[in-house]
Amino acid sequence: MDDKTGDLKVWWIPQVPMEPFEVKVSSLYEAKKILDILANYDLFQFNKNVKPDYCNAGGLSIFDKEDGWIDWETDLGDGIDDLSFDEVKQLDEVKQLGDRNRSVVSGINYLDIPTNTILAINNHVLYGQECGSFVEAVLENNLREAFSRADDYNQRAMFLIVSYLYNKCPMGCWGSVNNVKDWRKDGGFKGLKMNEDSLKLIFP
Q1: Which of 25, 38, 187, 197 is positioned for an S-S bond with 30, CB 3.0–4.6 A?
Q2: Are residues 38 and 120 in the same domain?
Q3: Total tally of structural domains belonging to the chain
Q4: If phi over 0 gives left and psi between -120 and 50 gives alpha, with beta otherwise, what is residue 77?
Q5: Are residues 78 and 65 in the same domain?
């Protein structure tokens, strides 16, 4: 099966430095659950004297069309181990919204926007969560700062990112520092307690 941008894969080494066991997963929640089970299983074997000692390692990778399989992390640099199960469920919901929105519309291919950038924007939209410095600058409509903070991939995708905000996101959640602050004060889309019909209107 061909690897696609955004694919997720758990890797686990029960005894360093052997080759890792790898398995693709469909969600962040599934990934965290598998990693938790594998860690507890190794500990169980140790406590039951199945093995005298061990040195394990594991993590989550995401596929990027430019760099191949890389370590997964949020826009703020948190890894899967840094997040609770509730936080992971929240990010899965954000990812589902991103998958729905990253379609080709009027010749604009939103799939070319870096995955972490889409996740950060949608996390802000849905939950009013803070983002990394690059996405914060974009949301505040400070393109001078945005370009200075963007990596090469986000610089190349800047038109698409702004287009995504304009065409796919509520106008009240971005465009100025005050808009961003007010949206977060209300807790984002979920804080405003809009229903699913409202969500479909906001995200066409």
Answers
A1: 25
A2: no
A3: 2
A4: left
A5: no
